[in-house]
Amino acid sequence: MAQLFRPSANTIARVAILGGLSLVFGGVGLAYLFAGSPYQTGATLIREQPVAFSHQHHVAGLGIDCRYCHTSVETSASAGMPPTYTCMSCHSQVWNQAPMLAPVRASLEQNKPLEWNRLHQLPDYAYFHHGIHIQKGVGCVECHGRVDQMPLMWKAEGMTMAWCLECHRHPEERLRKPEDVFKMDSPRLPVEEGLELLKTHNIPVERLTNCSVCHR
Amino acid sequence: MAQVVSTHGHSHEGNGHSHSEILGGHQSYTTVTDTISDVVLKRPLGKAWLFGFAIAFALLMMFLFAITNLLVRGIGIWGVNIPVGWGFDIVNFVWWIGIGHAGTLISAILLLLKQDWRTSINRFAEAMTLFAVACAGLYPLMHMGRPWLFYWLAPMPNTMALWPQFRSPLVFDVFAVSTYATVSLLFWYVGLIPDLATLRDRATNPIVKKLYAIPALGWRGSAIHWHRYRTAYLLLAGIATPLVVSVHTIVALDFTTGIIPGWHTTVFPPYFVAGAIFSGFAMVATLAIPLRSYFGLKDYITDKHLDNMAKVMLVTGLIVTYGYMIEGFMAWYGANTYERYQMLVDRPFGAYKHDWWLLILCNCVMTQLLWFKSIRNNVILLWLISIVINVGMWLERYVIVVLSLHSDFLPSSWGMYHGTVWDYMTFYGSIGLFMTLMFLFVRVLPAISIAEMRELVHELHERDEAKTHATPPAARTV
Predict the structure, then answer these.
(1) A189 near A142, Cβ under 8 Å?
(2) Is residue B153 domain-resident?
(3) Number of domains forming the structure of chain B
(4) What confidence tier does B63 reach under pLDDT thresholds 50, 70, 90?
(5) What ipTM describes this predicted complex?
(6) pLDDT (tens digit per residue) in B262-315
């Protein structure tokens, strides 16, 4: 009887087994890499905005405090986006004819807010409160990066749950003194000082990873 | 070359005639091979097969429809509510996974115990196990509500830094059932390899030949092949043996870890395992009786086989009955108000009393008929009893899941549960999936292991020789 397969069929069978296995494990690995990649999280990606607003210019160049525009960051869940009036508190006087700022002036004339494209969008099932983080000494720079070096705005971090938990498990590494919270260039404190801050701020680390802290 | 070696029985042709309770007629290697492989290779599609397959396939389509509707609209289409959050989905899961246990018991434990009556029923009992596990596995996925997130159950790196809760039996379940499915599949497949080679050699259509040749993995039936095959088969039997006990034990733990009255009982694991084997053998009998008469396999699946299966059903049925009695006794003896109310008032006299009494009738009363040899040997009666047992075991799971949840500690939180039309469509649909797979299986693969039947012919022949000539039995050649 003639052989049904050539000897090469053995090789094909072996390659198929190896290939199948590597497809499964490689697939899982690729999916993991994809889930954490900027393509999925939006980290480091710049989005088109109605006005090319430069944080670098306003923060590093002019020295404007975060809270001048993001007024509710110390007390509310949302940090707050400035109304056009806030822009106009300066730009009615300076650069008030600049073509770049035409959308801002139009917004004021028509009494229609500027529609910025949101970068940091947490899912609805995650509860996040800016106020508590600021009050307990988490510096802006910890999550938003060096905003003072961003000519156009991008998300500094992927904001995955794993990333949130890193800090919720070891907040002492990332806390700042109250006067340094809004400083972009303040370095992280030595751990002993961080532990001290945990005590003065009365932070219950063991409870920070309870599901209901964020998923209410 | 391959042809001659893989059906090496030809060299002994004519020597292997044998007669026994577990092998009817005068059988040789050739008759065994012919009868079993002809079902697959030569027999035309019969009207009865087509009719049965059409019904099964229609049910399967209904299953797909019900699942699609579930995915589109969510589990709100089911009858589950608060307090009864576990409904048909869990009932059906436990029922199907239990049915699978007979296959593993037959293939693993009876193999290790050298019960030669397992030989002719192990192949399709294993197939039944696989298909039952496939049906069972779908239910927890549907139960999740968002089945596309099922992979969260697996311990793997993820951007949420989350790990499954290893203290939860629900997580044990994921591992138990997936191990069970994997080992069952391997066991079934390894056992099939020599038979696939036989089919490869006997098929005449070149495409069919190749289709059987690929999974036959180049089997030529050499001594080395047989040696490795034996080793692998025994090892797999060893691995599968604890699974007979472990899988349903863990399913039982899903309930016992809950403090719900009627669930929090130590008797659960052993009596769940007995119940699983009980329902599994009932399903094997339900399938074997029509199968052997339709395909003319009565010489291979003899009345002795059915008798043995009936005995296993009787024993496990008695264990299950004992389980019910202990449940009731412990509820009374434990003097816990809620437990007593659940077991001694709500179940026999409460809102679901008809389900409970029907369960007792099916599982405890009807099983007693199997004490009588005349009933065990009456094929029609045995078939009907096996179906009654399947119904009874489904009711058992319904009683455990629904009745405990519907009336727990606080009367203010009591509620009623009834399956909706979608629950029933999903349940009957999964029977359609199971039957479709069974119908396809008996057409494309040998429903009885050809290689093991040839070995049985050989062994019975040697036993006969030893008896008639009073000479010491020859050393086993396998």
Answers:
(1) no
(2) no
(3) 1
(4) very high
(5) 0.77
(6) 999 889 999 999 999 999 999 999 999 998 888 888 888 888 899 999 999 999
Domain presence at residue B164: no
Q: In this structure, is residue B404 part of a structural domain?
A: yes
To the nearest whole Å, the CA of A111 is away from the closest chain B CA by 42
B271: exposed, middle or buried (Cβ count in 10 Å: 0-12, 13-18, 19+) = buried
Chain A neighbors of B200, CB-CB under 8 A: 4
Phi and psi at residue A55, to the nearest 5°: -65, -35
Flag if B158 and A158 touch (Cβ within 8 Å): no
Structure tokens at B317: 């049925």
Q: What is the predicted pLDDT for the residue at B470?
A: 57
Q: Which residues numbered 213-272 in B keep a CB inside 8 Å of some CB on A?
A: 213, 217-218
Residue B39 lies in a domain: yes
Q: Name residues 159-198 of chain A within 8 A of B (Cβ).
A: 160-163, 165-166
CB contacts, 8 Å: B213 with chain A: 4-5
For B11, other C-beta atoms within 10 Å of its C-beta total 10
Residues B448 and B460: their CA atoms lie apart, in Å, by 17
Is residue B203 left, alpha or beta, with left meaning phi > 0 and alpha meaning psi from -120 to 50?
beta
pLDDT band at residue B28 using 50, 70 and 90 as cut-offs: confident
Tell me the residue range of the domain where B115 lies.
2-147+170-469
Q: Which residue in chain A is spatially nearest to B207 when comparing CA positions?
A: A4
CB nearest A165 (choices: B2, B156, B161) = B161
